[in-house]
Structure formats: structure tokens, C-alpha cells
Amino acid sequence: MSRSRTAVLIICSTSLFVVGLDVSIVNVALPSIGRDLATSVSGLQWTIDAYTLSFAGLLMFAGSTADRVGRKRVFLVGLVVFTGASVLCSVAPSLGTFVAFRALQGVGASMLSPVALSIVTNTFTEARERAQAIGIWAAVFGVSTALGPVVGGLLVDGLGWRSIFWLNLPVGAAAVGLTLRFVPESRAAEPRRADPVGQALVVVTLVAVISGLIESNEVALVIGAAALAGFVLWERRRGEPLLDLRLFRSASFSGSTAIAVAAFATLGGFLFLNTLYLQDERGLSPLRAGLYTLPMAAMAAALPPVCGRIVGARGARLPLAVAGAGMTAGCALLAAVDEATPLWQLFGAYVAVGIGFGFVNAPITNAAVSELPRSEAGLAGAVVSTARQVGQALGVAVVGALAAGSGWLVLAGCGAIVLVLGLASTTRRPAPAAAASLAG
């Protein structure tokens, strides 16, 4: 890699670092937030899902806007919004304002992840080098996941839960300065026009479904289903839709999208249930709880670069099989834990789950864009990132309403879906059908 392209990869990876850190670090603080803001389990669910819902709901809009007005420009706006919202979260006086500021954080995050992936994809154009770059990019999520519980535990124990949001200020400020200097501006050759109706239907679908699950509201679920059907019908009629449904003619792309939902439902549910188990059931401090999760986080941090090389050399099939098997086994083991579960059993489950997450990000990201023209990189990256956040929101919403044992079994089932779809949707030879369809 040349120095300029290495700099671009580092800068784009920084955006994923702050987004990933925010996920794991906030989960460690949940019991402290619940006590300070006097909220129930459903309130804690909203502190996570307000972020992921606004993140997921605006990802495709952010990706298509970046393709149209400039990826660097949208990336910079995202950094500023995310960093500013982090500061607001640190001073929120009540649960309502905190949830609102978390939603604003998600707005900023929606401009970071897919746009950064689009910048990386358009910077590294050779297939093997691109796969390795995506592997490094994905590894940053594992590193941030590894650091989040420990750093969050230190801060919560020493300075209180509000201090966890201070970390985003220096990282965000540095990323803004480096982006202005090193990241080149780029746009799609033929960007799509804005689709406000489609965007509104996406937001209504996600908010209604997640709200229905968290609050056990059947009316909201019906509204969500109707909005989803309306979105599909509307997008099929538009010449330049928010989401080009022809992308799903690629088995690799559609499979990657479904796998992302299942995998990140497992991640979101794992972080939520495990935090409450360690701190509420086992009585650990935030710092000790963070240290307990290091076996999982270490695997998630160390394995993505290895996985990226495997994907570049052999494709996504083997890594996805390993990912699904690891998540299934780990969550199944956790279904039987209680306050007396021996540490070797607990840590063994964490290692298995960590192996699963360490092998899942690079193959789903690479498979999603491998059959598509580079001009669609922003949209494809946005769809897969949307699937990740939708999965995470669903995982938190579903397991929060179940008994712990049942919740872990649901997450094991999600891991099994990753395994089955990973084998079913990947082939050893890339298929040109989707690219030809989009070009036609």
C-alpha cells in the first residue's frame, strides 16, 4: 500500500473505531445509567436502540447522499455531528434527553460507517488488496470492542458513566483534521436523486417494529409491516430508488445482508444480556465485568486481519462457516449460566463467541460488494451497515423481553442462521449476474 492510501485506510478505520467503541462502552455502563436515571429494563433498551435505530434508518440515505454530493463532505459532517452529540450525552439530565442525544449520535454515525467503506472500496480497487484492506477496516471494530468494556469499566468506576462519552471528543477532532488533509473527495459517476418518501418509510418501519418489540405493542408491529410493504412497492415503481432492489438478485449480496442481520442480532443481544448477567446476577463492578469479557473481545480484535487474508485468498465461505459455528456454540453454552457458573465454562463460551465475531465482519462486507460495480459501493455499504444496525436493534429488543436462558437460545439460533446462510449463499466463483443487471 502507498502512504496516501494507508493514511486513508487509517482515517476511515478511525470512524469505525468510535462507532464500535460506543456500542461496547455504553453496554458496560447500563446498570449505572439505570440507577442514575431511575429507568427500567425497557428504558435501558431504548438507550441502546435509540442510537441503532437512527443509525440504521439513515444509513442508505447517507450512502446515496455521499455518492451524490461527495463522500469526504458527508464523512466530515458525520464526524462533527457524532462528536457533538457525544458531548451532549455526557450532560443529559434525564432519560428522555439522554435517549434523544443518543439518537442524534446515531445520525452522525450513519454518515460514518457506509461512507468510510465506500471511500476504502474506491481507494483499493484490486480485489485481493481490497479484501485485505476491508479485513483491516473490520479489525478496528474488534479492537474497539476489546477496549470498550475495559476502558468503560475504568471510567464508570472512577469518574461515573457520563465520562464514557468524553473519549469521542479527541478522537473525533483528530479524525476531522486528518480527513481534511488526506482524504480525497469522490462521487459516483451517476448518483441517484433523493427519495424522501422511501426514506420516511424506512424510518417508520424500523421505529414501529422495534417499538412494538420493546413495548409489546401489536399495533406498532402491524404499522411496521405495512410500512415495509409500502416501501417495497414504492421502490419498485421509482426510476431512481433509495434502495435498488436489483441488488438482491446477487445471492452473495442478499445472503450477506441477511447474515449481517442475524450476526449483529447475536452481538447486540450478547452485549445486553451479558452486561446485566455479570453486574446484576454475579455482582461484579463495571471494571471487573469489562475484564471478564476480554476473552471474547480479544478474539474479535485479533482474528479479522487473518480473516481478511483468508477471504482474499479463498473467499467468504469458510470464514462464515466458522463465524456461525462459533456464535452458535458460545451462546448455547451461555444459556445455562448462573451466579455459580465456573469461570472456565464462562470464558470458554466467550472465546467461542469472540471467534464467531472475529470471522464475520470481513466476509459479509467483502461478499456484499464483490459482485457489484464500484459505482454502487456507497449504496451497497449502506445496505449492509443498515442490516448490521437493524440486527443489533432487534437483538436488544427481543432478548430484553425474554428470560435470560430463552434469550441465549434465541441468540444461538441466530448464530445457526449465520452458519446455514453462509454455506448457502457463497460460492467459490463470483457470479457476474448482479453487476450485469445493474449495468443493463
Helix-strand layout with pairing:
Blueprint: H1 3-36, H2 41-69, H3 71-89, H4 95-110, H5 113-123, H6 127-159, H7 168-182, H8 196-215, H9 218-237, H10 251-281, H11 286-292, H12 294-314, H13 317-334, H14 343-358, H15 361-370, H16 377-399, H17 404-425, H18 433-439
Helix pairs in contact: 1-2, 1-5, 1-6, 1-7, 1-10, 2-3, 2-4, 2-5, 2-8, 2-16, 3-4, 3-5, 3-7, 5-6, 5-16, 6-11, 6-12, 6-15, 8-9, 8-16, 10-15, 10-16, 10-17, 12-14, 12-15, 13-14, 13-17, 15-16
Give a verbal description of the structure.
This protein is mainly α and 440 residues long. The protein has two domains: 3-183 and 242-439, Up-down Bundle (Growth Hormone, Chain: A); 196-241. 80% of the residues lie in helices and 0% in strands. α2 packs antiparallel against α3 and α2 packs antiparallel against α16.
In short:
By secondary structure, the chain is mainly alpha-helical. It is built from 18 helices and no strands.
